[in-house]
Backbone:
């Protein structure tokens, strides 16, 4: 039976671990000169201005202008600074988990807020931790800095953000987080579909009448006992047609893609469920034999499941900076 479009979209799945959570910075009182240094270095940071403007200066890469309704996405772990102009005379104010308060020239962390100051620039910043390995292909497809001009589908979202930031109502943080999620999706869609762009293979393939349904099935039912023949039956094409079309558009055979996806799922389960045994994780991703699963995991990830689970979590840029400051390597 051919697959229907109601199954899980492969791109939706890649966004599964990308969620804003208490990560809004808002200010309506940024007057030049200003320099806000965002030091946390999360995997993804979305920056946009509702009014006024400035420049995003990444740790590595060229400065990007930010005018009303323009959006810039910065990929970590590099940090960045938002300034009124390149070469500003303003002293940088560090913004991170404990962002500087407005009285110090910074912005308020987590909550949107309204200020009656004279500053013309309203900056919105959403930091995305990107949990787990499932979203790794999304990160790998992005440059260090990408920019999308205003005037697209994200403008309506920014109008909602402008209204919500100016309020201080119960449940505001949840609304702001979801609006930022919406804004990120609109921005990445526009960037992938821009004229002359080079979107990743999985983005292009999802729209193909053969590869697209196959991708959705592999994402929707990763633990199913898939063969190329079984997948072809579900898509409604011949085995040879599916194998050829999938490899041409995605860049690898269907079962190779499935193995990598299963190992990404397994990596997340090993991290998120410390009490689960390797055998339980193996069954969850479609392997009846834990030894076969362990061999596949090591082949794809380079370590065994047990070794992967014992690895210490990666530190954020802010944690690295804090450690260096405590050791006296950099000035505080």
Residues:
């Amino acid at each position: 039976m051919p697959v229907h479009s109601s199954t899980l979209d492969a791109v939706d799945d890649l966004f599964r671990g990308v969620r804003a959570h208490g990560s809004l910075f808002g200010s309506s009182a940024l007057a030049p000169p200003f320099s806000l240094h965002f030091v946390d270095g999360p995997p993804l940071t979305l920056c946009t201005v509702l009014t006024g403007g400035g420049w995003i200066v990444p740790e590595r890469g060229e400065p990007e202008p930010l005018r009303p309704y323009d959006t810039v996405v910065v990929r970590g772990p590099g940090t960045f600074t938002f300034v009124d102009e390149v070469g500003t005379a303003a002293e940088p104010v560090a913004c991170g988990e404990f962002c500087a308060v407005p009285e110090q020239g910074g912005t308020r962390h987590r909550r949107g807020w309204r200020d009656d100051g004279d500053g013309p620039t309203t900056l919105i910043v959403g930091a995305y931790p990107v949990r787990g390995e499932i979203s790794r292909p999304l990160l790998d497809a992005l440059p260090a800095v990408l920019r999308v001009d205003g005037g697209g589908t994200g403008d309506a979202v920014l109008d909602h953000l402008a209204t919500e930031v100016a309020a201080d109502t119960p449940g505001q943080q949840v609304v702001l987080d979801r609006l930022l999620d919406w804004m990120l999706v609109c921005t990445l869609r526009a960037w992938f579909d821009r004229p002359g762009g080079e979107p990743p293979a999985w983005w292009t393939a999802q729209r193909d009448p053969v590869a697209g349904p196959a991708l959705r099935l592999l994402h929707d039912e990763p633990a199913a006992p898939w063969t190329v023949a079984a997948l072809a039956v579900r898509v409604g094409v011949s085995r040879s047609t599916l194998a050829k079309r999938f490899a041409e558009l995605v860049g690898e055979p269907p079962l190779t893609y499935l193995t990598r996806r299963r190992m990404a799922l397994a990596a997340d389960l090993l991290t998120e469920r410390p009490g689960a045994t390797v055998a339980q994780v193996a069954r969850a991703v479609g392997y009846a034999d834990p030894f076969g699963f362990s061999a596949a995991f090591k082949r794809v990830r380079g370590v065994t499941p047990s070794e992967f689970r014992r690895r210490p979590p990666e530190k954020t840029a802010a944690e690295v900076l804090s450690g260096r400051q405590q050791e006296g390597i950099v000035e505080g």
Summary: The CA atoms of residues 75 and 142 lie 7 Å apart. The longest helix spans residues 172-192. Residues 1-8, 98-117, 315-332 have pLDDT under 50 and may be disordered. The first strand starts at residue 24 and ends at 30.
